[in-house]
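Input record, target 12 of the design panel.
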């Protein structure tokens, strides 16, 4: 089996001009001390792609081995993505990783396997989720992967012509001032407190051994913790508090159950000191610090070289973060290997006022990663305080009231303008597949779920697959966007062996399950892409998606339209639709004339009110709103010459989100 290969872009025939993305990747590659046997490094000469930095002090470490090649010499599957690209060779298929954050996480994994004693996986944070979410759904990933890089490059290019700080740099400075928000924060606060108090506790224990009848000192030191309230964790703060308390602060509230059982004193959660915001994501270092360091080094180097030190006065926390990151193991050494000249930054004054313990008044873009990228409701509740929970309950109540008051008005307005759902029949008379004749790993069977849920998933897949079979031709390239575990794509690969199927997914666990299924069936017409669909740049013939959430469905449709490809898509999560830097709502000219963006978002929330009990007024209204949103999507496709259809999946009970969008491009439909 061939070794894994990393492909980075460079400008011209020399590696002297590297885009910032390539510099960061080389920095992390060297930081992890990787080598060609672990991952082969290749530079691909590209014209006018990526960002070329004006400060060209970065150099590839002499210890790093690499090759330089032209784009047309790299594997075709690599050419389908924007650089950087990581090609992982598998037995039956190629596994391509694209997107800066995804690739750097992979390099951390490889470094951890090479040197497990360094425990590099700890840089991936709690449950290894740091920079795991894609840039479209995570503002923190967007900041680290796109925003900071863009702002640093723009700032350097403008030189002395700019007087204001870039927005993402300002946001990062603000993030460093926020209270630490993390999972199991009280557990971490206790661990830190115990570590700081350990020397004093050991001294007391030695005194007790010398004088067993006198345990006052030990009790005094342990109870001292109860006095440490509302202060930042630092050795000086804690030591001073320990020294100031020489007698008990109250009665022992924990009684030993046995005369010889040792008593314990536990500090209440509200008495624990706050954790300081030391690193990019809070109290502990993560991969974000390593990723952001090269960009901020360039930024600060430009400031120092141009004698613009007044800017540093606006970034006191960023300067301290930079100096602190340099003290992390291997960061300073890697910087020297990459030719990053050591900076002497003037000291800056920062506010000593205690940060507010709540972030409810801050915009979502300014909240720390651990708060705004939380996925599960349970995890979200663990990281929210009482004020935030109350605000969220209030927000839900306001939304519910707005829906009751506004939706009937919007529906009447659209009806008056003769806009209503226009559902048609599914293009296939029969959508059922003979699953019993398929290999086990082709069947969309979920482990440990009910038979009813498995049946519904099979029905959903059947509706999309049957629609694709009606329009696919031999030799077509079919992309399963947001493929999950590959239920649709693997079924198509089995039924259409002369077509090539691309599975595109940003969740590595789902894609790994798809890889196991592909290997078991030995499918050789499938290629896996781990990354956000924005990084996939190849043309194709048919695009499919099953319940791509919210904005993702519109991104899929835009990808298909830009490639003049047919599409078969079942949307989902209408209530999560929101305008982004690439998607604006409403989608079509017709709907833009009748609905504002705020009204359109409300319509999407109403479309999400589709319970499993279909025979209710709320369900019927939700279905109508789904049809209107999807009608807008198809109107946008019609504006580009597509022949479009929206139908209900068979049977409708297979899912509350049972709309199916089908589009045929102009050339094919003629």
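The sequence produced for target 12 reads:
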């Amino acid at each position: 089996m061939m070794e894994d290969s990393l492909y980075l872009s460079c400008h011209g025939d020399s590696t002297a001009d590297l885009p910032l993305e390539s510099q960061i990747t080389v920095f992390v590659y060297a930081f992890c001390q990787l080598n060609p046997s672990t991952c082969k490094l290749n530079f691909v000469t590209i014209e006018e792609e990526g960002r070329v930095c004006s400060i060209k002090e970065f150099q590839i470490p002499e210890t790093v081995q690499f090759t330089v090649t032209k784009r047309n010499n790299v594997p075709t599957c690599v050419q389908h993505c924007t650089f950087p690209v990581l090609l992982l060779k598998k037995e039956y298929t190629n596994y391509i990783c694209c997107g800066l954050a995804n690739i750097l996480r992979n390099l951390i994994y490889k470094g951890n396997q090479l040197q497990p004693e360094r425990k590099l996986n700890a840089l991936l944070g709690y449950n290894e989720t740091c920079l795991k979410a894609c840039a479209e759904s995570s503002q923190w990933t967007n900041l680290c992967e796109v925003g900071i890089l863009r702002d640093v490059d723009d700032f350097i290019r403008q030189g002395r012509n700019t007087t204001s700080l870039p927005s993402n740099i300002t946001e990062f400075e603000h993030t460093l001032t926020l209270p630490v928000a993390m999972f199991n924060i009280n557990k971490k606060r206790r661990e830190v407190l115990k570590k700081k108090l350990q020397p004093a506790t050991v001294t007391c224990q030695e005194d007790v051994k010398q004088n067993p009848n006198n345990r006052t000192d030990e009790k005094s030191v342990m109870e001292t913790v109860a006095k440490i309230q509302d202060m930042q964790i630092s050795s000086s703060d804690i030591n001073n508090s320990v020294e100031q308390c020489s007698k008990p602060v109250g009665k022992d509230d924990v009684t030993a159950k046995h005369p010889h059982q040792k008593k314990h004193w536990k500090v209440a959660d509200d008495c624990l000191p706050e954790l300081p915001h030391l690193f990019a994501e809070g109290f502990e270092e993560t991969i974000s610090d390593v990723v952001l360091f090269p960009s901020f080094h360039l930024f600060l180097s430009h400031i120092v070289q141009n004698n613009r030190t007044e800017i540093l006065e606006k970034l006191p926390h960023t300067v301290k973060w930079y100096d602190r990151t340099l003290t992390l193991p291997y960061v300073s050494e890697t910087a020297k290997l990459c030719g990053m000249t050591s900076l002497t930054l003037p000291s800056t004054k920062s506010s000593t006022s205690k940060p507010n313990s709540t972030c409810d008044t801050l915009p979502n873009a300014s909240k720390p990663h651990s708060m705004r990228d939380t996925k599960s409701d349970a995890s979200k509740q663990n990281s929210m305080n009482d004020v935030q929970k109350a605000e969220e309950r209030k927000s839900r109540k306001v939304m519910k009231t707005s829906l009751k008051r506004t939706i009937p008005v919007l529906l009447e307005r659209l009806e008056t303008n003769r806009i209503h759902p226009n559902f048609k029949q599914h293009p296939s008379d029969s959508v059922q597949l003979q699953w019993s004749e398929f290999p086990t790993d082709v069947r969309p069977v979920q482990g440990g779920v009910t038979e009813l849920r498995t049946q519904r998933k099979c029905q959903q897949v059947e509706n999309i697959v049957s629609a694709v079979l009606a329009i696919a031709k031999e030799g077509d390239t079919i992309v399963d966007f947001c493929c999950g575990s590959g239920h649709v794509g693997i079924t198509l690969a089995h039924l259409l062996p002369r077509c090539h199927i691309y599975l595109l997914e940003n969740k590595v666990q789902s894609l790994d399950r798809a890889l196991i299924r592909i290997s078991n069936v030995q499918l050789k017409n499938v290629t896996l892409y781990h990354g956000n669909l924005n990084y996939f740049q190849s043309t194709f013939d048919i695009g499919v998606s099953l319940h791509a959430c919210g904005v993702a469905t519109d991104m899929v449709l835009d990808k298909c339209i830009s490639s003049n490809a047919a599409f078969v898509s079942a949307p989902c999560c209408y209530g999560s639709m929101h305008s982004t830097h690439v998607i604006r709502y409403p989608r079509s000219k017709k709907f833009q004339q009748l609905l504002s963006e705020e009204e359109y978002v409300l319509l999407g929330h109403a479309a999400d009110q589709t319970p499993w009990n279909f025979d209710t007024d709320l369900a019927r209204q939700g279905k109508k709103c789904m049809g209107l949103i999807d009608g807008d999507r198809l109107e946008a496709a019609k504006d580009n010459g597509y022949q479009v259809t929206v139908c209900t999946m068979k049977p409708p009970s297979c899912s509350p989100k049972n709309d199916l969008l089908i589009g045929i491009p102009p050339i094919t439909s003629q």
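The chain has a mean pLDDT of 82.
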